Amino acid sequence: MTTTMQRWGLASIALLAGLSVTLRAPAAPVPVPRWTFADGTANDAYGLMDGTLQGEATISGGRLQLNGTDAHVCMLLLPVNVSEKTLVAKVSLATLDQGGGAITLQTSDLVL
What's the domain count of the chain? Predict the structure, then answer.
């Protein structure tokens, strides 16, 4: 892996040799997918991975509501391989005595 200093060093050598060098910043990550529940559905905001409510899952006031036993949302498989991830979930708990996870990312064979 090259460091910033090494990359600038290579660019400087190329410029001294009369070569044209274009430096580009890495592309910013694009969120894939996003569920807001604002429209009363588990549809993906980008239209790629709509969800299906399972068990006793409901949506009310833009919030996904789960009963703590069998309620969840199933999504389609991600259309891309994931090498890095940041998962974000806004959670509102009925009490602070409950446990569990808010969001997971699993492979097609259900491995976390």
Answer: 1
